[in-house]
Amino acid sequence: MCVVCSAGGHLTEAILALEGVDYPVFLVTYRLPHLEKNPPFQKYYFITNPHKSPWKYVINFFQSLRIYLRERPRFIFSTGSGMAIATCLIGKIFGSKIIFLESGARIHTPSLTGRLLYHVADLFIVQWEPLLKHFPKAIDGGLLD
Fold this sequence. Notes:
This protein has five helices and seven strands, in the order βαβαβαβαβαββ. It has helices at about 10-15, 35, 55-70, 85-95, 110-115, and strands at about 1-5, 25-30, 45, 75-80, 95-100, 125, 140. The protein is about 30% helix and about 20% strand.
């Protein structure tokens, strides 16, 4: 399973969501000093954080494609942010199952990444019931502990 998300709070939520999951996991995120010293998973890759730069989205896409073709994950799990979009779209094209968990910080309004990936996710989970009006096919998974 590929876990793709940004390296701060999104990663914390991903770790909480995957507690007790007994499945081989590798992480795709961007480089931050705390992750270089103490990565949360044994296998990990760093890619460019595009943060609204069209050129960096192109770089992110090709980095994500290279990792995807090397690993060929059956499942891709993401909590966002925009740096995860390319990996999820590539995975969908090649037949991976996409699982997206909308951030617990999103109570009433959806994230841009959530709005984009809702249409390709095989399983879309929200943590707050008010978001179901934006994502009617989503599952209300409740707030992570």
